């Protein structure tokens, strides 16, 4: 690991902090999640340009109503505890309310707060102005089609509040001490059935983004390029860009464009018995159903590599997903190409997560076959 990323890790370490993950927006700017010297997990930003870092820090502190507790680490990193954000002014107010908990924060893009309303647990997502209408429409369309998704309780120009869904994530189910192959096959089957149901939902009236094979390859190429530019791309058994070309060559034209989740993995699925709900439907797009299948299956593979669960349990769940979904012959043919693209994207994504880089590399170097 060399270059800007190594310097970022070293700078944080010198201040007693530890980088949990970076999410590069460009070659000169990255969003951060940092474990501070006090043990707190705090969002932040890194800028290659010292002057830009100073400007953002100053503007964030001076935001009306903001508490002046943006922290500087060196001259390129700012940390933003408690939801402090110049572009999401509602986030800090929500997160600082009694009993509230900041669940997620991507600086200047979005945040999620868990809190209580009328005696019930609710989640409020905060986004930049004017970006809530599409999310509300999407959740309504998906729910009306029989896919369990968070119920909207209220919204305005910058926030959407939804009811909490019952159940535990598939991620937790994989790691449960009493997990067994039979139960995870059943859960996987239920997930496959619900994914098929999502893929049968007509696209909402609002124009949905298109995400075909070319778009998936382009997203992966961008991530690989960013990892290389930051000096974070790990060494693997083969050239990842050559492997991406091979993945692209394995894709076939989509004959059944469907409504995609587009970020489907085990943390986005809530299971309650045979009932499965879906979270974070912000990225819905229309494209090849194998995109969602590949993303979910490769994440199950990754969880085994990370040691969250055993290979046999992860594979049992994956087998259940395929049995529940019942992919067509064409979808099975194109699935390996999308799976390879997913592995390459995760290689680049987890290159910015120091504790999980080895697992993502192992997924690429020792891939599973899904049949």
What does this structure look like?
The model has no long low-confidence stretch (mean pLDDT 92). Helix content is 43%, strand content 21%. It has 371 residues and is α+β, with helices and mostly antiparallel strands. A five-stranded antiparallel β-sheet has the order 1-2-3-5-4. The protein has a five-stranded antiparallel β-sheet with strand order 6-7-8-10-9, sandwiched between helices. A hairpin with a 2-residue loop joins strand 7 and strand 8. The chain contains twelve helices and 16 strands.
Mean pLDDT: 92
* Number of strand elements: 16
- Low-pLDDT parts are none
Order of helices and strands: HEEEHEEHEEEHEEEHHEHHEEEEHHHH
Could you give the topology of this structure?
Layout lengths: L2 H12 L3 E9 L2 E7 L5 E7 L2 H12 L9 E3 L3 E3 L9 H7 L5 E6 L3 E8 L2 E8 L5 H12 L7 E4 L3 E5 L4 E2 H6 L5 H19 L9 E3 L1 H17 L10 H11 L7 E3 L8 E4 L2 E4 L6 E3 L2 H17 L4 H15 L3 H22 L6 H9 L6
Parallel strand pairs: 12-16
Antiparallel strand pairs: 1-2, 2-3, 3-5, 4-5, 6-7, 7-8, 8-10, 9-10, 11-14, 13-16, 14-15
Helix pairs in contact: 6-10, 7-8, 7-11, 8-11, 9-10, 9-11, 9-12, 11-12
Structural features:
about 375 residues, alpha+beta, 5-stranded antiparallel beta sheet, 12 helices, about 45% helix
Provide a brief overview of the structure.
The chain has helices at 3-14, 50-61, 89-95, 133-144, 170-175, 181-199, 213-229, 240-250, 290-306, 311-325, 329-350, 357-365; strands at 18-26, 29-35, 41-47, 71-73, 77-79, 101-106, 110-117, 120-127, 152-155, 159-163, 168-169, 209-211, 258-260, 269-272, 275-278, 285-287. The chain has 371 residues and is an alpha+beta fold.
């Amino acid at each position: 690991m060399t270059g800007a990323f190594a310097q970022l890790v070293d700078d944080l370490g010198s201040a007693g902090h530890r980088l949990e993950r970076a999410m590069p927006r460009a070659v000169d700017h990255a969003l951060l999640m940092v474990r501070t010297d006090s043990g707190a997990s705090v969002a932040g930003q890194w800028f290659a340009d010292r002057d830009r870092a100073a400007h953002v820090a100053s503007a964030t502190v001076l935001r009306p109503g903001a508490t002046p507790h943006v922290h500087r680490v060196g001259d390129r990193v700012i940390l933003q505890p408690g939801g402090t954000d110049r572009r999401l002014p509602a986030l800090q107010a929500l997160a600082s309310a009694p009993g509230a908990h900041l669940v997620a924060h991507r600086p200047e893009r979005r945040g999620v707060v868990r809190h209580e309303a009328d005696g019930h647990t609710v989640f409020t997502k905060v986004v930049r102005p004017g970006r809530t209408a599409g999310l509300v429409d999407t959740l309504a369309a998906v729910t009306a089609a029989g896919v369990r998704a968070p119920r909207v309780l209220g919204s305005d120009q910058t926030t959407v509040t939804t009811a909490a869904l019952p159940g535990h994530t598939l991620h937790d189910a994989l790691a449960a001490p009493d997990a067994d192959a039979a139960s995870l096959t059943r859960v996987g089957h239920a997930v496959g059935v619900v994914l098929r149901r999502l893929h049968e939902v007509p696209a909402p009236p609002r124009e949905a983004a298109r995400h075909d094979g070319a778009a998936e390859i382009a997203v992966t190429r961008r991530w690989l390029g960013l990892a290389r530019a930051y000096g974070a791309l790990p060494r693997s058994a083969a050239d990842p860009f050559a492997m991406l070309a091979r993945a692209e060559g394995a894709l076939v034209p989509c004959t059944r464009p469907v409504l995609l989740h587009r970020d489907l993995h085990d943390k986005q699925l809530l299971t309650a018995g045979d009932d499965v709900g879906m979270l974070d439907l912000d990225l819905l797009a229309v494209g090849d159903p194998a995109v969602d299948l590949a993303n979910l299956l490769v994440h199950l593979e990754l969880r085994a590599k990370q040691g969250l669960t055993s290979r046999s349990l992860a594979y049992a769940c994956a087998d259940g997903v395929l049995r529940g979904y019942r992919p067509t012959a064409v979808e099975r043919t194109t699935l390996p190409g999308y799976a390879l693209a997913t592995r390459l994207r995760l290689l680049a994504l987890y290159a910015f997560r120091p504790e999980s880089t080895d697992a993502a590399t192992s997924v690429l170097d020792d891939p599973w076959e899904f049949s």
